[in-house]
Amino acid sequence: MEKLSNPQVTIETIKKYDFAFQKKFGQNFLIDQHVLDKIILAAGVTKEDLVLEIGPGFGTMTQYLAEVAREVVAVEIDPNLIPILQDTLKEYGNVTLLHEDILKVDLVYLVQEKNGGRPIKVVANLPYYITTPIIMGLFERHVPLENLTVMVQKEVAARMQAGPGTKDYGALSLAVQFYAEPYIVANVPPNCFIPRPKVGSAVIRLTRWETPPVRVKDETFLFSLIRASFNQRRKTLQNSLVNGGLPVTKEQVATALDRMELPQTIRGEALTLEQFAQLSDLLRG
């Protein structure tokens, strides 16, 4: 069977199954072989690997993954795609297809069952409306991961990689960088998809830290602190935290900033991850 990375094959598949793209699932299928090759290369998939693919679509990337991985588990939420995937992947004996919502799958159990608890690799062309919940869900549930190599909206990739003091820096930057090292692999124009999205895309690889860059007394409090710091970017950090629903007083924040030798007028966007961790421990302590 000719691969689905050939746009003509994808168009024929759409016609064969009279498939209608579902806006609610954010369906834009990748049809560019060069981009697929870059994703596979960036993920570093080998015959030793179990790969989790989220949202396989017609199975375009799944076909490539199946040729280089030991096993691929593809999780698809759209029931209309299941018979199509069963057809397009029928030649690949190392693919397990799950008709599930990825946010409801017990991935820790899946990794234990399929890979003996050893870290897996995640590859996905993620639906843009649910990118952050999927990525943060994988990290926060402590799924054993080596890396995630995912297609996301270009501006979201920029935010994940951004550093302090830049316009893209925010709660997402810090949350991602707490768990992983981000690296933008490639920018991808709309004409690489069918149907074409209205925005530019990017492939980003998130390599899970073996040792976290910071340690904190209370991870949940740290992330509450970070979110509050960026809820109103133009306010000082002190005002953002006091008005952000955290159990802290203005005096406590002022004392903590003094101990860190930071000005009382500082904004959240100026703090590094290490400084947020220090502030979290001071306020929690």
Which features characterize this protein?
single chain, 285 residues, alpha/beta, Rossmann fold, Helicase, Ruva Protein, domain 3, 2 domains, 7-stranded mixed β-sheet, two-stranded antiparallel sheet, 12 helices, elongated
Order of helices and strands: HEHEHEHEHEHEHHEEEHHHH
Radius of gyration: 21 Å
Q: What is the molecular shape? A: elongated
Q: Helical stretch count?
A: 12
Beta-strand share of residues: 15-25%
Name given to the CATH homologous superfamily of the largest domain:
Vaccinia Virus protein VP39
Distance between the termini: 62 Å
CATH topology of the largest domain: Rossmann fold
Number of domains: 2
Number of strands: 9
Question: How can the largest sheet be summarized?
Answer: 7 strands, mixed
CATH architecture of the largest domain: 3-Layer(aba) Sandwich
CATH level 1 name of the largest domain = Alpha Beta
Please give the order of strands in the largest beta sheet. 4-3-2-5-6-9-7
Q: What's the mean pLDDT score?
A: 95
| Helix percentage range | 40-55%
Structural class: alpha/beta
Stretches with pLDDT under 50, minimum 5 residues? none
